[in-house]
Amino acid sequence: MSRHWIGDTLASDGLEAEFNGLSVPLEHSFELDDVAKFQLRGSLMLKTGREPSVSLNQNQLSEEDRTKLKEVAAVDGLYRIRVPRVFLQADKQTEWQTEGHLTAFVRACAMVESHLSDVITLHTDVSGYLIGVSIVTLPGACRGIEVEDEVDLEVFNTTLSIMAPVNAPGPETALFIQRMEQEFEKKGKNPQEQKSFFAKYWMYIVPLVLFLMMSGAQDQSGGGGGGGGNGGGR
């Protein structure tokens, strides 16, 4: 199971807005030679704590970047994003130390055809570390639609969220063992042994019982006939 927190996105010409929380860069790369060269796309503002939240302040694409993105899309190249792997903890809101980066990608043509509409999800573990990032576009597939030059590819339309796991209630092991012991005590040891003995030797026990029953019936029949004859003699 997991918990989902949806964040806000803000578009501006710079990253001068102030937020109370942890600020980490969001970078992107889209190159014709498919060699990643990351540059700043925006800044993630992470409010840490028991229920973290996230906001995104993004730069607009320059005319040069818009042209390059279309060129990369035309050759079916990739659009990549990355964020630093950081620890979301309340006592580290004002500083962070990177422990590598988390990367995700989509096809550049999907970014162009969606008019820069994407969904970015940050995944954390139970201790608060960022362990993954994912990106999808809306719509999510390249349909081969030619995007006109006048289409606005300047401003990102991003939905941002944090997905954290939720601890499921663990089994009450001690209570379970206690109940099992009580059940065994109720059944008792001998009935269980008797059941096992009968299950093992029933093919011998049943014919023996039938034989004894038939023998007893014959004895009773013979005894009754003799009594009748004696009575007739009188």
TrEMBL record:
Pfam families: ECM10 (PF21203)
Compartments it resides in: Endoplasmic reticulum membrane
Keywords, ordered alphabetically: Endoplasmic reticulum, Membrane, Signal, Transmembrane, Transmembrane helix
Membrane-related topology note: Single-pass type I membrane protein
Spans through the membrane: 197-217
Domain of life: Eukaryota
GO cellular component term, pick one: EMC complex
CDD domains: EMC10
Similarity comment: Belongs to the EMC10 family.
Subunit structure: Component of the ER membrane protein complex (EMC).
Protein name: ER membrane protein complex subunit 10
Top-level taxonomy: Eukaryota, Metazoa, Chordata, Craniata, Vertebrata
